[in-house]
Specification:
This protein is of the alpha/beta class. The protein is 55% helix and 13% strand. The strands form two sheets. Strands 3-2-1-4-5-6 form a six-stranded parallel sheet. The N and C termini lie far apart (53 Å).
């Protein structure tokens, strides 16, 4: 079987390398493509085949994975004479693993030929999880399709979850991110209360971790505020983009999201103040500057 992979960024490279190890053990072939020549060359040097172009890669593959920055890139690759829909091998299955817009994916689905199977399959777990093969993958997929591909998905995902029919994967990913960003902004307010009352913020963190407030965000993000790094592993501009997708999903599904709208506005302010590439927890800096109070352990 030929497996295609397009998009060798931080997430895509880790997933592709795990698929490559699988192919080397199973006799399958991994064919890869990216406009970043360095990323492409690195994966090809490890044993993958250079796909040369989207059209050429798709014409050879029974299964395709894409890992792309946004719906814009997904649509650019999907449509047109040289695109995925026009060239993907008859009967193939396309797993789209990006954080995408439900409304835009529905447009792609509507244009797809009936012989193709398209699956929204966003992943969670960061670049480290992608490389380690410990991602969670949320699928908008039919049961019979999942049965066919579950073992392959398990090559790079420790948790493979069918969330429902087409679109359910994207909604799950954005719902998860929504709560993440709500809590991320909330830790700024929480720490500021402690700082203004002269609490030891490290001790406050330990109390939060043994209380009803305990969460991944509290555990992982607070130390990166207290040390002043604001978590360099993820860009503020990407967080702001995610919040835009979340609020647009609310509009698309006709769900009122006053908290989401407020948090999106705050991330926009932070991006304007500190730049796209600033660490994502720079959103807490807005509160520090407003109160003239650094939050440090």
């Amino acid at each position: 079987m030929n497996i295609g992979f397009i998009g060798l960024g931080n997430m895509g490279t880790g997933m592709a390398l795990n698929l490559l190890r699988h192919c080397q053990e199973s006799g399958d072939t991994l064919i890869v493509f990216d406009i970043n020549e360095t990323a492409l060359t690195d994966v090809v040097a490890k044993g993958a085949v250079n796909g040369q172009s989207t059209a050429r890669l798709c014409g050879q593959c029974e299964v395709l994975f894409t890992s792309l920055p946004s719906a814009k890139e997904v649509n650019l690759l999907a449509f047109g004479g040289d695109g995925i829909l026009a060239n993907l091998k008859e009967g193939a299955t396309w797993f789209e693993t990006s954080t995408n817009e439900l409304s835009e994916w529905q447009k792609v689905k509507n244009e797809a030929p009936s012989h193709l199977t398209l699956v929204d399959a966003p992943v969670s777990g960061g670049a480290e999880g992608a490389l380690a093969g410990t991602l969670a993958i949320f699928l908008g997929i039919d049961e019979n399709v999942l049965t066919k591909f579950e073992s392959l998905l398990g090559v790079f995902a420790a948790r493979v979850v069918r969330m429902g029919p087409s679109g359910a994967g994207y909604v799950t990913k954005l719902a998860q991110l929504h709560l993440n960003y709500l809590v991320a902004q909330g830790i700024g307010e929480t720490l500021m209360l402690g700082a203004k009352a002269n609490l030891d913020l490290s001790v406050l963190h330990s109390v939060l971790m043994s209380s009803c407030a305990r969460s991944y965000v509290v555990e992982s993000y607070i130390p990166k505020v207290l040390d002043g790094s604001y978590d360099t592993s993820f860009a503020l501009g990407l967080a702001e983009k995610d919040m835009r997708l979340i609020t647009e999903l609310g509009q698309h599904l006709e769900v009122s999201m006053p908290l989401g709208d407020k948090v999106y506005n705050t991330y926009q302010q932070a991006k304007n103040a500190y730049g796209y590439d600033a660490p994502h927890l720079s959103v807490v800096r807005l509160m520090e500057e407003q109160h003239d109070q650094l939050l440090r352990s």
